[in-house]
Amino acid sequence: MSSQYGKVISFILLERFGEIVEKVGSCLFHYGSSPLLYIKKYTNLPLSQVKEALCILIKYNLVTFVPNKNENIANYSLKCENIFLMLRYPKYIILIKKKFEDEGEVILEEVLLSGFSSASEIIFKSFNRLKEMENKTISEVQLRDVFMALVTAQYLMRIYIPEGNKAVPQLEISEKDKFIFPSIEAIEVKNLIEKNIPLKQESYWTINFDRFHQDLRDKLIISAITKKIDENAGELMKTFLEQMYIRTTAWADTSNPIPIQEVKNVIKKKNSLHVLSAFLDQYINVMEQDYCKMIRKFGEAGGGSYQIYLKDIIIHLVWETIEQIVLEKFDSKAARIFRLIRLKSYIEPEQIQQLAMIPAKEAKRLCYQLLEENFIKVQELRKSSSNSGPTKSFIFFNIQIAQVVRMVLELCYKSLYNVMTRRLSEKNVNKRIIDKKQRVDTIMLGMKVQGATEEQLADIEEMITPPEKELLGKIGKTMKKLNLVELELDDTVFLLELFLRYD
Hints:
The protein folds into five domains: about 5-80, Winged helix-like DNA-binding domain superfamily/Winged helix DNA-binding domain (Arc Repressor Mutant, subunit A); about 90-205, Arc Repressor Mutant, subunit A; about 210-310, Orthogonal Bundle (Arc Repressor Mutant, subunit A); about 330-400, Arc Repressor Mutant, subunit A, CATH 1.10.10.10; about 410-500. It is built from 22 helices and eleven strands. It has helices at about 5-15, 20-30, 35-45, 45-60, 80-85, 90-115, 120-130, 140-150, 185-195, 210-230, 230-245, 260-270, 275-280, 280-290, 310-330, 330-345, 350-355, 360-370, 400-430, 430-450, 455-460, 465-500; strands spanning about 35, 65, 75-80, 115-120, 155-160, 205, 260, 295, 305-310, 375-385, 390-400. A three-stranded antiparallel sheet has the order 1-3-2. A hairpin with a 7-residue loop joins strand 8 and strand 9. Helix 6 (about 90-115) crosses helix 7 (about 120-130) and helix 17 (about 350-355) packs across helix 18 (about 360-370). The radius of gyration is 28 Å and the shape is globular. Belongs to the eukaryotic RPC3/POLR3C RNA polymerase subunit family. This is DNA-directed RNA polymerase III subunit RPC3. Pfam families: HTH_9, RNA_pol_Rpc82, RPC3_helical, WHD_POLR3C. One of its GO terms (biological process) is DNA-templated transcription.
């Protein structure tokens, strides 16, 4: 793993858990799987603090452990991918809020805050939080149904809690047992809420990240097709994906054949898709004939079934993204050269000058800029004319997309670290005014609860002077912009990771 990736991981741990946990996490990142005493030696921390940090990391599924040769000692390993996923928590929450409204949002937040938790604790805490919301009425049965729906849809999965006194317990659980949900009676939930009596069949639950990534992938594909064609084409692809899950595993490269009649029946039932229903055949033809080849007819006879080529769609989106990066990093002529090399696979320098219609000197300069930044590669072919004669060589430019993706990922990690560092710097520089604003807001909230008048609240608000309000406005805009950049960078990272997953 790269140093830039390690910097991002360390920063996330420092920001969310503090210096001690960050030290332990950085130690595991640099030295790999290590036993407890080695971690203590490398970090130079007291044993009690190392144990506490490891407990926190294990609770949030950021560290895993296995027994070493001596089965009484555990080797601890950092789950870097899970640490990086903490940047996506806001996206997960928004996704669940759209599907399951406030109840689903609160349940997911409780699980994310606790790392893992029992069904009783999740339901109890969620009910109390929802009860405090204004204009919100919630019943115990309704909350139970939403919780069960999240498990049924596989957004939450069961984890194994070991029993007994084994020195290094195994936390493995079979795939079929992850989503088995015990029946919860309404009376049990009522007793839990009113009397705090735990459920009879207790189980512990955590987040299933893979399920969220399926939805994020589908959202990415639908959004790309909507921008490329229109909203009706996006709805058509959404319907195809829904039908795909009935007969195909979620991460397959290509879906099994989907009967077009099923798609038509689903679209007809949706009252809001009159235009799509009327011009369905035309939309299918447009998507089939697109050079991206997002859907293709199954078989030669045209039996009315189509397949979704998920891998090809992701590869196409990655190519488009990298071309856009080349355009922004260099210029339109460099992007033209990059696109030409992509289309030709292997191309000589002289051909680039002719086909790209760029002056020879400028084309050479741009090619070597792209070569220096690792967007393109050089391949040399040697051909001997005779035993005694000179050896003739041919130079070709080509693009090794997997290497380019990894290189762009490194750029994204570097940019993410810079954005995070800048955000922390803004907080530290303006710490005094930010703390003052928080104190004033706390006082105003307390006064409102006590029934303070508008004049009293206005007097408290005047504790912040007009210049300070102006400065707070600038700080807020800067923070908002940095947060937006961080989310957009993560979108790019997610797309590139999808490519590597399918590669």
